[in-house]
Amino acid sequence: MYLYQSRLKDQIIHSVKDVSVHAEGGVYTDAISGMFNVPFGYSCESIKQSIAQTLDKLPFHPKDHFYSPEWFDASAMLLKRAKMDDGALLYVNSGSEAIESSIAMALEYHRRKGNVQKRKVICRKHSYHGATLGAHSVTGRNDFSELRNSGYDTVRIHPPFPVTHDGKALETHSAADVENIILQTGPEQIACIIFEPVNHLKGMRQSPAEYLVGIRALCDRYDIVMITDEIVSGASRTGEFLNTHRYGVSPDIVALGKGISGGYYPASAMATSAKIASVFETRGAWIPYSYSHTYASNPVSIASIHTSLQVLEQVEASGQLQSLIGKAGELTRSIAANERVARIEANGLLIGLTLDERLGGGAGKKLEQLCFERKLIIRGEENWACLAPAYVMPEGTLAEVFEVLNESINQL
Ligand SMILES: Cc1ncc(COP(=O)(O)O)c(C=O)c1O
């Protein structure tokens, strides 16, 4: 018995190369970068080499006594890219742990300031934050709902964009609605708000600029820690290192994962602003707020992050990423004309679409299947689907991806 089943069909995978997957059934084009976590494709030699060399000379040593040579540089690079230069950084192994650490840090931030009653966590419906119990309890999926609310004391809000479920339009909450909820609950009880600026479920929906700016202002007004989950949207996937930077908004805490290690090693992180970090520091000494994980920031994981950030800088400086983003925008606009598509948006290299309601509630999943039969890997559920091509995908390949996507939509 397996506790996790393959989404479509179990088959043996042989190897991966560039943006292709070689498996029993043939060669597939991967248009979602693994699980949104392999931005430089599967053949990035510099990341492979730095991992291999580190494995050879420094496979593991706990962080209690020493730092690996790349540790300071990787950490400074990450904090700089997150625009939190004077803040703090915590390495963990998975995105779920980064979420749990972010919430724990927000709760502890208030406790250390003497606001012990600030314990509630505002989180969104139709969200995904991870598979551990704490991350699950702030997630807003419809499945496994019995697990929800078993971790943190949550207040659930609706997303700021219109969504449907089983053909029915659901509520939306603007920043003004969120303020009313804060006031009804009592700001003195609210520790933090957590959300994905680009919502994975329901087809990669961008939170509008005014919402992001509005939530930032609410957090400042009511001393609420703003936590953004940029595990998918970070590492420049939507054009800037953090998605919220595109709108001039900086969170207090950001959870990062997936692409920061190029997908070659399990590594995630939580970064905080100086405002949060300062509460954990007395006369230059850092006061730990939690235990750490055995493997967090081990030398191999730091090497994978360090080299990935260098590769990211190269891909950005060469103009390759910007050019592919332009191409994705152009191809997305060409699909918008398809009357079976109710909405399609390219947010950098994060592309989300909603299918016309007349195609039924399971059209997204069916689209994923149709594409898979045609050797294209995308992700689809309910009436939505999404793509997240690698930053190094050749533009011609991206054009073929959209061709297969459009033809598969027409087959629905
Ligand atoms: C938006 C978002 N947050 C958090 C997570 C959890 O990350 P991980 O699977 O590394 O624990 C995911 C994973 O898909 C995610 O998409």
From TrEMBL:
Gene3D superfamilies: Aspartate Aminotransferase, domain 1 (3.90.1150.10), Type I PLP-dependent aspartate aminotransferase-like (Major domain) (3.40.640.10). The keyword Transferase applies. Pfam families: Aminotran_3. Its cofactor is pyridoxal 5'-phosphate. Keywords: Aminotransferase, Pyridoxal phosphate, Transferase. InterPro entries: Aminotrans_3 (IPR005814), Aminotrans_3_PPA_site (IPR049704), PyrdxlP-dep_Trfase (IPR015424), PyrdxlP-dep_Trfase_major (IPR015421), PyrdxlP-dep_Trfase_small (IPR015422). Belongs to the class-III pyridoxal-phosphate-dependent aminotransferase family. This is Aminotransferase class III-fold pyridoxal phosphate-dependent enzyme. It comes from Chromobacterium vaccinii.
